[in-house]
Amino acid sequence: MPEGPEIRQAADQLAAALVNQRVTEMFFAFEHLKPYEAEFIGHCVTAVRTRGKGMVMSFSNQLYIYSHNQLYGRWYVRKLHSYPQTNRQLRLAIHAKKSALLYSASDIEVLQHSDLATHPFLSRIELDVLDEAVTVEQIAQRFRDKRFYRRQLPILLLDQHFLGGLGNYLRSEILFVAKVFPTLRPVDCSDQQIEALSQAVLSVTQQSYQTKGITNDLDIAMRLKTQGYKRGYYRHYVFNRDNQPCFVCGTSIVKEILGGRRLYYCPHCQAK
């Protein structure tokens, strides 16, 4: 599933292609949305924003399009009416100066402004980790909040109500960078560990956004890239690297399944 950094990167591409451009044609794959197609024609895209893993596009007709990529959704920005060769199903197409195409996702809605505050997904996001206004102190307060502090960290870090935008690869990388054993709860952590977790939430997520998904130390990643290693090998510290040596200490990375999701950690760097 695309996580917050990937959705923000897609939003940046869409904004560059569509903002202040008039819509010439709109296509919705779902029958209940087709009556809205004509309402967008001739109106401009005014903004493309993200909220956690959700995206909201606003238009000059005071309507909004909400989308969530879910597991397999993918946005393409193409030349006008140019479609990629893919087996994916087209769900939404916005044609202006360029074409913005959303494939495979099924969570798409047309909203009024009054709907945004009560939307079942958007309204749950109290703190978006890619919001530039979010601070380390605010995140530390979330970890200490009694609503959250007795939950295991791997489960908590996937809860969009806790922190919007995190997902499976980010949680493993955050726990590693913070050097925190994965099955601890915030209530089990020292003040130093809470501080490290809070710092890692921001630094790892921001780096992933800025580098298109690299969460490893950038010097290590560049060295390995220069040596000819593929991106999949050096992209992350621990995620998807089970039985491979830790880049920091050389210990074999461990993979576990928690709640049906993969979790990776270094038993030495993250000793309990």
From TrEMBL:
Q: Which InterPro entries match?
A: FPG_cat, FPG_N, H2TH_FPG, Ribosomal_uS13-like_H2TH, Znf_DNA_glyclase/AP_lyase, Znf_FPG/IleRS
Needed cofactors, names only, are: Zn(2+)
The protein's Enzyme Commission number: 4.2.99.18
Which SUPFAM superfamilies would you find in this protein's record?
Answer: Glucocorticoid receptor-like (DNA-binding domain), N-terminal domain of MutM-like DNA repair proteins, S13-like H2TH domain
**Which terms under GO biological process does the entry name?**
base-excision repair
* Pfam families for the chain: Fapy_DNA_glyco, H2TH, zf-FPG_IleRS
Where the record annotates domain FPG-type, the positions are 237-271
Q: Which GO terms describe its molecular function?
A: class I DNA-(apurinic or apyrimidinic site) endonuclease activity; damaged DNA binding; oxidized pyrimidine nucleobase lesion DNA N-glycosylase activity; zinc ion binding
Q: List keywords of the entry alphabetically.
A: DNA damage, DNA repair, DNA-binding, Endonuclease, Glycosidase, Hydrolase, Lyase, Metal-binding, Multifunctional enzyme, Nuclease, Zinc, Zinc-finger
Identify the enzyme class. Answer: lyase
Domain (Formamidopyrimidine-DNA glycosylase catalytic) spans 2-150
Family indicated by similarity: Belongs to the FPG family.
Among PANTHER family, the record links this protein to:
ENDONUCLEASE 8
Under NCBIfam families, the record lists: PRK10445.1 (NF007763)
* Protein known as: DNA-(apurinic or apyrimidinic site) lyase
Q: Which organism is it from?
A: Leptolyngbya boryana NIES-2135
